[in-house]
Write a structure and sequence with these properties.
The complex is a heterodimer of chains A (about 220) and B (about 625). Chain A has about 220 residues and is of the alpha+beta class. Chain A contains 5 helices and 10 strands, in the order E-H-E-E-H-E-H-E-H-E-E-E-E-H-E. Chain A has helices at about 20-30, 75-85, 105-110, 125-140, 190-200, and strands spanning about 5-10, 50, 60-70, 90-100, 110-120, 145-150, 155-160, 165-170, 175-180, 210-220. In chain A, strands 1, 2, 3, 4, 5, 8, 9 and 10 form an 8-stranded mixed β-sheet that branches. In chain A, strands 6-7 form a two-stranded antiparallel ribbon. In chain A, strand 2 and strand 3 (about 60-70) form a beta hairpin. In chain A, helix 4 crosses helix 5. The longest helix of chain A is centred in the N-terminal third of the chain and has 14 residues, at about 20-30. Chain B is an alpha/beta fold. Chain B has a domain at about 1-230: 3-Layer(aba) Sandwich (Rossmann fold), CATH 3.40.50. Chain B is built from 21 helices and 19 strands. In chain B, the strands form 6 sheets. A 6-stranded mixed β-sheet of chain B has the order 2-1-3-4-5-6, with helices on one face. In chain B, helix 5 (about 115-125) links the parallel strand 3 and strand 4. Chain B is globular, with a radius of gyration of 24 Å. Classes of the chains: A alpha+beta (about 220), B alpha/beta (about 625). Chains A and B meet through helix 1 of A and helix 1 and helix 9 of B.
Chain lengths: ~220, ~625
């Protein structure tokens, strides 16, 4: 059955739709678009599509991915056009391309994500200050944090191995950080965890304000 | 909106406050003559499951000269952030402050949302009491089932709509524009509005009390104001406006499917049921209309399930034919159909089986009372045989869990009725075992609520059973329902008590509501938020004894706090039904063609709109 990989953006107010609700929203848009969806078997058939790593609520997604199976092939442009007509504000398909039927699942292949974080500081710092702070973090062999996921218990873990890259620039009291972090079933590091370490252990004077976070890309291993 | 953005990151389920849903309607504010904010006084997930919201959204937005935007009660965490930052209550469509709208319309679905109404007014920056509001404040109106006893809210609401709103909302908007829009003279508007059928303006009535505190009179204070306000009923439901492009929530909601209203009203005449009275007469829509609407809803929403909504869908005259055509049409699209409530009989189960492709784990029936005697008292015509047939059909079809709804505290209830509940549950369990349902899956859940006497029903004169006694009965049942495969659910008696107080209340409760809100009462219908001690304090501060409302037994000729609201049904009929209840006599379903004489049809000059008359009383 024809398989497609779809790249889309999630921004504006759509950032606040949770992962589960995003799945529902996408499914309904696909139904409205009249796409020849392939359905799973069993008591509760649902359309066969799957998303990659969940995007946290509130984070903008510039290049998110989903894999979709149809029963009949359609031109990529048409899939893109028909979907975009049905997507609510803040969601937009940017690219669609065919992938082989035996391509591994997104969830299994994605290992890294890049993020951009825009922060305001309580006072201005210099580029030199910022460089020292970032280098400080990167020099650490391990960074132990406690993380609570949902209502589950807290767990402690070392996030250093999951921080693949970190850089930034500053202009007065505004900082933009670019980071490449682990994502996926084996390890995940959240951008706000990195910001918290920079603030609490390296003195980045972050203001008490929600930073603007965007996931700029998702990558396979290597 | 930077502030809103900041706040959204700090609260649970931020999608509740964001809007932007599929089929949302955003109009040009400056080009629209009248702006209505529809306020559902509970959280988004509850409000977006309400069909009335979708209907009114559609009706008002269909007018070129009007717009309607939505607002819901912010959850406790969001309220905290809003107060901290001075963010006023806003609508989802344009994130505009609610106080900028011309009309603020609340829906009164449940008495336990009344403090949310006050809280929303306060969060909006609108004075709570009608007399404190003036030009520059929106008109505050309300409608819905609780408007049939609107008195506890009389101080806070400018105008109530009694009955169905689809048509009267147009009349109100037309009047609003006729009198000059937001520059109008409020008193003049309210006076003219009072002359519209179905509109109740509380400030134009005076309530007087006897020395002993009972009501001696409820009278209009001006001419042109009717002594009794008669409810509005939509005629020809088949042609009435119905939303085929409903808003598709961006968040999982209680009822996450397309809703198709099959009929309105119910003919069964169960004596405890207020909905059965206030939505009379029954009006069915034609199968052709329903198919058409189902089609359009699917096309415009992408839902994979349509729910056939009404008070008793299995009673729809042509249910089999309609369901078959619907399934034929929808199956090809991968869309399933669901029935929200089932009648207690095998027919209903057969229907459910045919219809529910996705077998939800449990099937629910509502026998309501544990013995035939008590069921006849409440006119719930379900026999033990019906129930056993129904559950056998359910087990045979593969269901393994059955949920049974009962009420405790019904008038004339005795110890054996409680034993009857347990007996029925055990019988159902035994039948399941007999039919080979695996022991680890077989489950019978008994879910009980406490009876609350409601206005405009034959039981409106009855007191609620006292809290201590209700608690004792719950204890008894708990003892009787111990064992493998049995689960017992019950409701907090204090919450049921408060519901009874508000359901039977008069305007003197306005002070109590305000105190309760001031003390921090919100979301009283949510057990995690309900705080009975605060309510007790509120009653103390207002100098009101709540027991006088919940536990009062009225005489037939007492003046009831809601007597000036007319649900269309004759008092004589309700009295007769009450007497028959006390004698344990059942009254037939009016669909059978035997009219029990409630008086509604001649009063409203209407008739039940049925596709077919049923020949004999179908079981259940």
């Amino acid at each position: 059955m024809p398989r497609y990989r779809i790249e889309f953006r999630k921004e504006g107010m759509a950032r606040f739709i949770s992962h589960l609700d995003l799945v529902r929203t996408l499914e309904r848009a696909m139904r409205r678009a009249g796409l020849p969806l392939a359905f799973s078997r069993g008591f509760n058939p649902h359309p066969r599509f799957s998303l990659g790593a969940p995007l946290p609520v509130g984070v903008k997604g510039e290049r998110e991915y989903l894999d979709l199976e149809l029963v009949t092939a359609l031109p990529e442009d048409e899939i893109k056009g028909r979907l975009n007509e049905q997507l609510p504000g803040g969601l937009e398909v940017t690219r669609v391309w065919s992938i082989p039927g035996d391509a591994p699942a997104l969830m299994a292949t994605l290992e890294k994500a890049t993020y951009r974080v825009d922060l305001r500081l309580v006072r201005a710092i210099t580029p030199e200050d910022l460089r020292k702070i970032i280098d400080g973090l990167l020099a650490l062999p391990e960074i132990i944090i406690t993380r609570r996921s949902g209502d589950k218990k807290e767990k402690t873990l070392d996030i250093r191995p999951g921080i693949h890259a970190l850089s930034g620039r500053v202009e007065g009291d505004r900082v933009t950080l670019e980071m490449c972090l682990a994502v996926g079933s084996r390890a995940t590091v959240r951008p706000e965890e990195v910001v918290q370490v920079l603030a609490e252990r390296f003195g980045l004077p972050v203001a008490d304000e929600q930073p603007g976070v965007s996931r700029t890309g998702l990558y396979c291993g290597g | 909106m930077f502030e809103l953005e900041q706040v959204l990151h700090r609260v649970q389920k931020p999608a509740r406050y964001v809007g932007g849903e599929w089929n949302v309607v955003r109009k040009d504010w400056d080009k629209t003559d009248v702006k209505v904010a529809f306020a559902f006084p509970d959280v988004y997930e509850v409000g977006m499951s309400h069909l009335g919201l979708q209907i009114l959204y559609h009706v008002v937005n269909s007018r070129e000269d009007a717009l309607l935007e939505r607002t819901f009660a912010p959850w406790v965490d969001m309220e905290g952030e809003m107060r901290r930052r001075g963010l006023p209550l806003f609508t989802l469509e344009s994130h505009r402050p609610v106080k900028d709208f011309d009309i603020l319309a609340f829906t009164l679905q449940y008495e336990m949302t009344f403090t949310n109404i006050l809280n929303m007014l306060d969060l909006a920056g609108i004075p709570l009491r009608s007399e404190q509001r003036g030009p520059g404040h929106p008109l505050v109106i309300a409608g819905g089932p609780c408007a049939f006893n609107p008195e506890p809210l009389a101080d806070f609401i400018d105008l109530f709509v009694i009955g169905e709103g689809e048509e009267v909302i147009h009349e109100l908007l037309d009047l609003y524009l006729e009198l000059g829009g937001h520059r109008l003279d409020r008193q003049r508007f309210l006076h003219r509005a009072a002359a519209i059928a179905g509109v109740y303006v509380p400030s134009l009535y005076r309530v007087e009390y006897h020395a002993d505190g009972t009501i001696s009179a409820i009278e209009p204070v001006a001419s042109g104001v009717p002594a009794r306000v008669v409810k509005r009923v939509v005629r020809n439901l088949d042609r009435a406006p119905f939303p085929v492009k409903p808003l598709v929530p961006s968040l999982g909601v209680v009822h996450d499917r397309g809703m198709l209203e099959v009929q309105r009203g119910c003919t069964r005449g169960c004596r405890f049921c207020q909905a059965g009275v206030i939505y009379r007469p029954v009006r069915e829509k034609s199968p052709a209309t329903l198919l058409q609407q189902a089609d359009e809803i699917i096309r415009h929403t992408g839902y994979d399930e349509i729910s056939l909504v009404s008070l008793s869908t299995a009673d729809y005259s042509r249910i089999q034919e309609m369901v078959r055509s619907l399934l034929d049409r929808l199956e090809g699209m991968g869309v399933s159909v669901s029935l929200p409530s089932l009648r207690v009989d095998a027919f209903s189960v057969a229907l459910a089986r045919e219809v529910q492709r996705v077998r939800r784990a449990s099937l629910t029936f509502a026998p309501e009372a544990g013995t035939q005697r008590l069921r006849d008292v409440i006119n719930k015509g379900v026999t033990e045989e019906n129930l056993m047939e129904a559950v056998s059909a359910a087990f045979a079809a593969g269901w393994t869990a059955i949920k049974l709804y009962f009420m405790i505290g019904l008038p004339t209830e005795r110890e054996e009725d409680l034993h009857g509940i347990a007996g029925l549950a055990r019988q159902v369990l035994a039948r399941g075992k007999e039919m080979g349902v695996p022991g680890n899956r077989l489950r019978v859940t008994v879910s009980t609520s406490s009876f609350v006497p409601k206005s405009h029903t034959p039981f409106q004169w009855e007191p609620q059973v006292e809290m201590e006694e209700l608690r004792r009965r719950q204890r008894t049942l708990r003892g009787l329902l111990r064992g493998k495969g049995l689960v017992f659910h019950w409701h907090e008696v204090e919450a049921s008590f408060l519901e009874a107080v508000l359901a039977r209340g008069d305007r003197r409760l306005g002070r109590v509501l305000e105190e309760a809100w001031r003390l921090g009462c919100r979301f009283d219908g949510w057990s995690e938020c309900f705080d009975f001690e605060k309510w007790q304090e509120a009653f103390r501060l207002a100098g009101i004894n709540p027991a006088r409302y919940a536990y009062r037994r009225y005489a037939y000729d007492d003046l009831l706090p809601w007597d000036h609201i007319d649900a269309g049904v004759r008092r004589k009929y309700l009295v007769l039904e009450h007497k028959r209840a006390m004698e344990g006599k059942a009254t037939p379903d009016c669909r059978t063609g035997v009219c029990p004489g409630c008086g509604l049809c001649p009063t409203l000059e209407i008739e039940p709109e049925l596709l077919e008359r049923v020949k004999e009383n179908a079981s259940g």
